[in-house]
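Lab meeting prep.
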Amino acid sequence: MNREQLIEIVREQMPEKRWQHTLGVMETSVRLAEQYGADPAKAELAAILHDYCKYWQVDEQAEVVRESGRDLEVLEYDKQLWHAPAAAWIAEETFQIEDEDILNAIRYHTSGRPNMSLLEKIVGLADYIEPGRDFPGVERLRELAATSLDEALLAGFEGTIRVLLDQRKIVYPLTLLTRNDLVAKLNM
């Protein structure tokens, strides 16, 4: 399957507004990859697929996560997290993506994880800062991204954690571990 065919298949999975977001993540991922020395083609591929399952019914997402046998603990947390591991499994099983770094960039784009690879950081950050994003603090994240992936990601995850705390929602432990890992690395 070529790039254009994959793009069309993914586009059919989501409303136009989400497709515009995906295009923004693709563009931003490629730019960040070029800036920070990652493979732009891998960054684009992970970005194309990162939200593949976002608009599936949550029971379908849960079924895919269970079928994968991985990341099962995510099912105990907010349903907004489920599409990422589901999309990684679909990328592997349906689209035959074998590159573990691409799969992990899809799998962890919402939660992060300790010791994120360069590609994982790029796709996760691109999801936060793509041009269509408009939330308090996004401009600061974009400014930080110009000089430090880790600083920008840390600010992004801390912003997410703050919102969840303000809404009295449960914070996915992997996100807290990611935040702590970034703090430790930046304070070295």
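Slide two material, second protein:
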Amino acid sequence: MKTGTSDFIHLCQPDGGKSCGACCGLYNYADSSRASLTARLARRTARYRATVLRPEDLAAFAAWVRETEDMTKRYEVIHCCEYLGFLDDDRRRVGCLLHPMQNAGEDRRDVSFYGRELCDGHFCPSYHFLSRPEKLALLYALDDWYLYGLCLTDIDLVKEWFRFVSDAVCETPDPERFRSGPLRDIARAYFAFKLDWPFRDDAVNRLGKYYFDGSQYMIRHIDYDALGMARSRFDKIFLSLTSTFRDAGEVRRAETLIQGTIDAFVRAYAGA
């Protein structure tokens, strides 16, 4: 990963309006709703700024987090870092409270579960599997830390939709066109399905296409045979949206919702 090159895109902290804390276990709490995570991070941040005046105070802070928060996880193997909080007063960016930029240049990450070297050098699969146009389009379309992190780390959700819209308009859309206007609005509407998908399975042990059983994770496939139909062309998207269907009619309605965003994109693209 050539982080020093001019075309490198820092997906973790791309700009002042959003960031991602998924690798720190942000969405691994049993209750990972926006309201719950916002309250959790705000409370930690206030406590950290008020009580951690020197490195010797870090152990007491971590113990306070573990003792006063509900640390129940979706997936036991993924660590939920106690030092994840808000980096700005407007609560638009999540990140590491131990980072030197949060501590007057002092790097305190050695006390974290993974340590400074791993935290500093880790890049999630999205860095490798999302194309540059996909990365930029996602960055331009979203300005919400909660939704951004959910979508950025769901490679199928991103790549499948951009594949469908690219095929429909016979080219890869210029990411610049996602900065504003109808294409941005349509992309946001699609990605917002991560928040309000009507066919979502809300089981605690589900996240995206995965379900968890203790220390193992598996893909929760959709049984189309039991529904009496062929596999949907949107199957990967449905899995990313944690879908569960009771009958073929629900699948058809779900397909209509996804296709609706593609059709809207094509109309707006042609009009522009």
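Talking points for slide two:
The chain is about 45% helix and 5% strand.
The longest helix spans residues 248-271.
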